[in-house]
Amino acid sequence: xxxxxxxxxxxxxxxxxxxxxxxxxxxxxxxxxxxxxxxxxxxxxxxxxxxxxxxxxxxxxxxxxxxxxxxxxxxxxxxxxxxxxxxxxxxxxxxxxxxxxxxxxxxxxxxxxxxxxxxxxxxxxxxxxxxxxxxxxxxxxxxxxxxxxxxxxxxxxxxxxxxxxxxxxxxxxxxxxxxxxxxxxxxxxxxxxxxxxxxxxxxxxxxxxxxxxxxxx
Length: 217
Description:
Blueprint (H helix, E strand, L loop, with lengths): L1 H5 L2 H32 L5 H11 L8 H11 L5 H25 L3 H9 L4 H12 L1 H17 L2 H6 L7 H6 L2 E2 L2 E2 L1 H30 L6
Antiparallel strand pairs: 1-2
Helix pairs in contact: 2-5, 2-8, 3-5, 5-8, 6-7, 8-11
């Protein structure tokens, strides 16, 4: 009760839910076609593109903070859910493409060729053939990226103030010049991680199944 009295927990909670789910769903809409193209219609530059995408995850976030902050300021995206959804989607998109690419590579291309011979269009091939076969991989990608977006602190602390602040900002608010009150900080941290721990607990079988998808033939 004291934690709720100090900060509006549910305001931060719903911000975290909207940002995590929004960035993951939009990222999947981009990552699924991209991974399909790289897995089943590769070019000589496909591996270079995949390595480049992976290299973006090695770039220190602070190195691009100033230009992104200026862009968000000029576009009016600071302290908005839409702004955080966009940045979360962009920073996690390489992981989503890589994961889906590895899952799609385990699916025999002959199945998709058979669907084309039966008259399936590209859209039907993606929706009715590829997606059902890759559900474990897609589910694990979705769950992992929800967790990554939920736990992201650097961008949420630098691009928000109060309106769109998620639970990471909620925890950070307990650091003050007077010092750290460990009891309150512990309670706030528990409340912040509890939803994602519960989600992980109920979906652990699906997550493990997806992460090991295609590992044994």
